[in-house]
Amino acid sequence: MRKILQNHLLIILGWLCMALAVIGAILPVLPTTPFLIVALALFSKSSPRFHQMLLNNVWFGPSLKQWEDKKTLSRQTKYRATFLIVVSFSISLVFVDYNTQLQLLLVGMALVLLFFIWRIKEEPLMSKCLDHD
Length: 133
Description:
Radius of gyration: 17 Å
Strand content: under 5%
């Protein structure tokens, strides 16, 4: 009984992280990728079906597979994330043009996100070449 409750709790938390990831894709204040990674980890321990659903997703499945297998991100994924962060935070800055403190907070958050994204290891180029042979 305890195992069933734990399993259901992990699934609920996984879906909560998925909801936060979707919200994060729309609002620049919440990051999307960390919530997807946490959801992937929660589903790996509770629901093989939901875990596989994330890995097979057209949009973010390949990046999550790479993260799960090698704990790396591709440079292309980092560029895409950087682009989305810069665009979404820039839009937010326009909406709060009357509040300098809030603008500085948003810029600081964007810089922290970019710092952490670019600190994640990248897959070595040689390994990419070997995978395609």
